[in-house]
Structures are given as C-alpha cells and as structure tokens.
Amino acid sequence: MKKNIPEIEELVRLISKLPGLGPKSAKRIVLKLINNREELIKPLANILAQVYKNIVRCNICGNIKSSNSSCTFQTCSYSDKNYTQICVVENIADMWVIENSGIYKGYYHILGGTLSSSDNKKTDNLLIPSLVERVKKDTIDEVILATSATIEGQTTAHYIRDSLKDTKVKISKLAQGLPIGGEIEFLDDGTLVSAFKNRGPVVSD
Amino acid sequence: MKKNIPEIEELVRLISKLPGLGPKSAKRIVLKLINNREELIKPLANILAQVYKNIVRCNICGNIKSSNSSCTFQTCSYSDKNYTQICVVENIADMWVIENSGIYKGYYHILGGTLSSSDNKKTDNLLIPSLVERVKKDTIDEVILATSATIEGQTTAHYIRDSLKDTKVKISKLAQGLPIGGEIEFLDDGTLVSAFKNRGPVVSD
What we know:
Two copies of one chain form a homodimer.
Chain A: H1 6-15, H2 23-34, H3 37-54, E1 55-57, E2 64-66, E3 85-89, H4 92-101, E4 107-110, H5 128-137, E5 142-145, H6 151-163, E6 170-173, H7 189-197
Parallel strand pairs in A: 3-4, 3-5, 5-6
Antiparallel strand pairs in A: 1-2
Helix pairs in contact in A: 1-2
C-alpha cells in the first residue's frame, strides 16, 4: 500500500547516521520536518549549504573558521592578547569542554584526531607540523597536552613531545587520578595506579 | 577567547528544535557534521533542498507526495486495487504505525491535525471537505475513524461523523478498552469506563 518516496528514505538514512539517533528517532525528526516546511526544512537546507560553503578548518590551529576570514577564534591569531600557552586537544569538542570549564585561558591547537597505535602511527591527518611551527615562531612558554587518557591519546602526547624536543618550550600534560565523585570501589586498575603514582600532600582547599 | 561563528550558532539552534534533541545533543550533532563535510553536510543540505522543493501534501488525501506526480501512496489514487474502506487518521505518523502493524489494508485520509475544543472548532486546516468528496465520489463502504482517544481526537471524530451524515457510508471508530499488557490496578478511570461499557463475551482466541 505505502510506496516509499526516495527523497524521504534518503533523508531518514542520513539523519539516522547522526550521533544519538537511530532509524526510529530519524523518522520522528523527518515527520517533524515535513510538518514544518517553512520553519525547519528551508532554513536547515540553507544553513547547511552555507556551512558547507563557508566553514573550513584553519590549517594553522585546526579550529573551524569562516573561509573568507582569518581564524576568528584567536586560537592561532593574536589580535587581542599575547598568551604564552598552547593547549593541544584532539578535536573541537574537547576545546569546547575546556572553554566551558573556564579553567584555561590561552591558545588552542586542535590536532584533528589521535595517532592510531595499530595504524603504523600515521600522522598525515594530524596538525603536528604546524604546532611545531607555532611554538618556534611565537612567544610560547608552555605546551599543555590535553589529549585523552587512552592509549591513542597518550601515544599522541608522546609523539608530540618528541616532535617538540628541539624547542625549549615547557611541555606538560593533564594530571591523571581520581575523577571528582569517583569511588575507589569502582575505579579501574589504570586509574588507581595513576592516582597512587601521582599522590601528593594533603592540603586544605 | 572563543568567538562564535554565526552559521554554526544558527545550525545548533535549528537542530535543537527537532524532537528529542536539545542544545547539548545538537552541539554533538553539529560537531559530527563539521567533521564529515562531504559525507554528511553536503548530502544533507542537498536532500533537504530537494525535499523542500519536491515533497508536498496531497490536497485530496493529506499524505505527502512528490510535487510532480499524483499521489504515489495510493492513499487516494486507485491504480492498483479498489479498496472499500478509508481509514481517517490525524497525521502521517499515525498512518505509518497502522501500516506497520499490518492490521489494515485500504485507503487512508490524513486530516493534518484535530479540532481544538478551545479554538472554536476551527476546521480550516483539516482535510474534512475532501473526505466528504471522496466518500461521495468513490465506492467506499466504510469510514474508519482512527483519531486519538483524546478529547480533541474524539471531538474531531464526532465532527466528521456529522459531516458524513448525508452519505450512506458506514462510520466506525477504533475500540476503546484495556491496552495489551494493561494492568487493572494502574488504569485510569476513563479507560476502565470504556472497558466496562464495551465489554463482550469471553471467546477462545
């Protein structure tokens, strides 16, 4: 009875690829879209076309930027202030989380992924050479490696440390240990080992 | 430090309007999109533009269809078979659920909403006149009112029954009672009243 419309099928297929969505929720979204042609389909189609056309990755710092301007995030352009630290993260989401926490004020460098330990350490897609350039060229005192506490993230951190060994910059990485609210009973061995190794004096906050 | 890109802001805003999504999941989706320009942004922009251009509502049966063809769903065109029943539903999602259940084979009529009991019973947006036309014109024996068991749905059902009173068509509505798996203890009064009123003989399945 029901014949499928190819455009709708394709729309469901694409939307169900997005994180957190499956075929069922994609169908629900498509129904909402169909019922809101002017308010949703039209502006979404337009803004996606614009983003596709205008938003590119900065080939210095790896952040996204408008294609017709220099890097507006000042993760690599130094118009406002001269920071002395670069925080190296794997992807944009990591930077957003750190930004939101307010703990860090300085430049960012978005690698665009990690080294894969299995994949012969291919660094083709990672913005490591431009990081070395930035450190050499600018007044950077410290590079903070904020890669994940995974094998890939730590492999990447070591690789970057080696890449920067000719510069005199200070290189640090985020502390490992108990997460806030973490109960000893449920911690994995790796976290426990880190927490013991990195133990420090008891200080009042 | 972080300056916002207006296109990205707008994309997050639009996506967070979709059902089941909020600002956080919208951000996650936008990040996924940014990282998959060719695989996601481009095809999504294209298919949305196509859907906006090509997919319209059939003004006879209320279903969606390609703008350059007659109603391909055969909810109102009678190329394959001559059914004798029309199932009247509030929206496309309702039709999809009924289709998937396999319980019904016949034509559909999608109203596009319900009468609002508060809103002076405005029927402007509901495809009720074309339903009357269909019933008058074609060989329809029965109209099955599959509107929701809500005040609005039942008000709409009554309104449609009145609109069809000049035709000789049989008008039925879906049974009300215990849902499968429903425990008496947790049923609301309305459902209990319906279940008692509509009680029937005990038959072996």
